[in-house]
């Protein structure tokens, strides 16, 4: 028997709460939340963890890039130049200080 483990990270605590919490009657993305909950209960180990945006720079870059794209679906055949530096920082374990904005 093959054992599978999936580790997911999100910087959006509301999503994690929705996925782990009870099923609200109405929510804009309820169909997606229900599908994620179904996937969690399959024959594998899944953990969904919170991560600060600073620790998730690659995903943040891809999300922003996708939000400004006119394409509905994109396949990346190669790592974008800007993302290569972020991936390298991840590989060598670079820590980034959390910036705070005081007004």
From TrEMBL:
Q: Domain RNase H type-1 spans what residues?
A: 2-65
Query: Where does the signal sequence lie?
Result: none
Return the Gene3D superfamilies for the record: Ribonuclease H-like superfamily/Ribonuclease H (3.30.420.10)
- GO MF annotation list: nucleic acid binding; RNA-DNA hybrid ribonuclease activity
What InterPro entries does this protein's entry cite? RNase_H-like_dom_plant, RNaseH-like_sf, RNaseH_domain, RNaseH_sf
Q: Which CDD domains does the protein's record reference?
A: RNase_H_like
Q: Which Pfam families match?
A: RVT_3
Can you say what this protein is called? Putative ribonuclease H-like domain-containing protein
The organism of origin for this protein: Lupinus albus (White lupine)
């Amino acid at each position: 028997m093959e054992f599978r483990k999936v580790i997911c990270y999100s910087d959006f605590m509301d999503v994690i709460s929705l996925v782990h919490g009870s099923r609200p009657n109405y929510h804009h993305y309820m169909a997606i939340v229900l599908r994620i909950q179904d996937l969690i209960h399959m024959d594998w180990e899944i953990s969904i963890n919170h991560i600060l945006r600073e620790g998730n720079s690659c995903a943040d870059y891809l999300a922003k890039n996708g939000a400004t794209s006119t394409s509905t679906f994109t396949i990346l055949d190669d790592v974008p130049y800007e993302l290569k530096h972020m991936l390298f920082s991840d590989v060598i374990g670079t820590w980034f200080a959390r910036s705070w904005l005081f007004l």
